Amino acid sequence: MNDTPTAARPETAGVVNPPVVILIEPQLGENIGKAARAMLNCGLVEMRLVRPRDGWPNEKAVANASGADIVIENTRIFEREEDALADLNRIYVTTARTRDAVKPVFTPRGLGPEMRANIGHGEKIGVIFGPERTGVRNEHIAMADAVVTVPLNPGFTSLNLAQAVLLIGYEWWQAGVDVPDYQMMLNDSFPATRDEIERMFVHLEDELDESGFFRVAEKRPAMMRNIRNIFNRVGMTHQEVQTIRGMVAAMRGAKHKPKSDD
User: Fold this and answer.
1) What is the CB neighbour count within 10 angstroms for residue 227?
2) Looking at residue 50, what is its pLDDT?
C-alpha cells in the first residue's frame, strides 16, 4: 500500500472530504490518467487503485492525466478491496447490471445530493468502478450500500472508465454549485435600458422614413413591429445600442455628403 502524504487540495465545491474514487483492477495506465483528469474537473482528488494490472507508478497515467498531478501523486495502491474500503462509512458501486442483489439503485443525478448529504453528516464516501473489460463482479456489489446505474440507451450502455468517472463526478459537483442553466455573457458591458432601446428605435425609424424604406404606408406599423421584435430578441447591451445608433448616423451622413466633382 502506498501512503503518499496528501498534498494541498484544490477547490472541492465547499466540501472538506469529497468522495473517494476506487478503481478495481484497472487495466491501462491511459485509462487511469484520463479518470484522474475527469476527477479533478469535478473537485475529486482521492483515487485508490486495487491491483492495477500494469503496476504503479505508471508513466502513461501521468501523461494522460493532463495536469491532474494532485490526483496522481496522492493515488494509493491496495492488494485487497477490503483494505481499500476499510476507512469508508458508505460505499456506492457503479454497474449497468444490478444482477440479483436487492439494493437501492441511484442514477448519477440522484447520487450527487445523496453523497453530499451523507458527507455533511460526517461520513466518508467511496465510489467503486470495475475493470474496463468486465465491470464490477458480484462480490463488489455485495460490498456496497447502493448501486449507481447510468440511464443510457438500453441497446448500448457501455462506457469507458473515464466517462463513467466523469458522469458521477459531474453530478457530484453540480449538486454543490449554484450556476444558472442559462446566462448571457456581457463581458464589460451591461444591459441597455428600455429608454436607450426606445431612443434607438425612434432614431432608426426616422432614418427609414427618410430613406423611403416604408413604401406602403399601410404596412408601416407591422414592418416596424417586426423590426422591434428582431432587436428585442437579442437582449441588447448599452454598447450594442450605441453601435447601432452610430451606424444609422453614419449612413445618414454618407447619404448627405456632397459628391466629388471628379
Assistant:
1) 15
2) 97
Q: Which residues pair with 226 in a beta bridge?
A: none
pLDDT at 190: 87
162: cell is 473515464
What's the pLDDT at 129? Answer: 97
Q: Are 239 and 189 in contact (CB under 8 A)?
A: yes
Given this model, what pLDDT does residue 160 score? Answer: 94
Nearest to 124 by CA among 151, 86, 157: 86
- What strands, in cross-sheet order, belong to the sheet with 125-129? 76-78, 47-50, 20-24, 125-129, 90-94, 146-148, 105-106
* pLDDT lower than 50: segments of the chain: 1-8
The predicted pLDDT at position 102 comes to 83
How many residues comprise the chain? 262
Beta bridge partners of 125: 90
Domains of the chain from N-terminus onward:
20-174 (3.40.1280.10), 194-256 (1.10.8)
Q: Which residues are registered as beta bridge partners of 50?
A: 24, 78
| Best CA proximity match to 160, nearest among 27, 60, 17 | 27
Integer Cα distance of 169 and 161 in angstroms: 12
Question: What pLDDT is stored for residue 193 in this prediction?
Answer: 94
The SS3 assignment for 94 reads strand
Instruction: Specify whether the CB–CB gap between 73 and 45 falls below 8 A.
Output: no
Identify the residue whose cell numbers are 442514477. 107
- Per residue in 105-136, pLDDT (tens digit) is 999 999 999 999 999 999 999 999 999 888 89
Do 140 and 128 touch, CB atoms closer than 8 A? Answer: yes
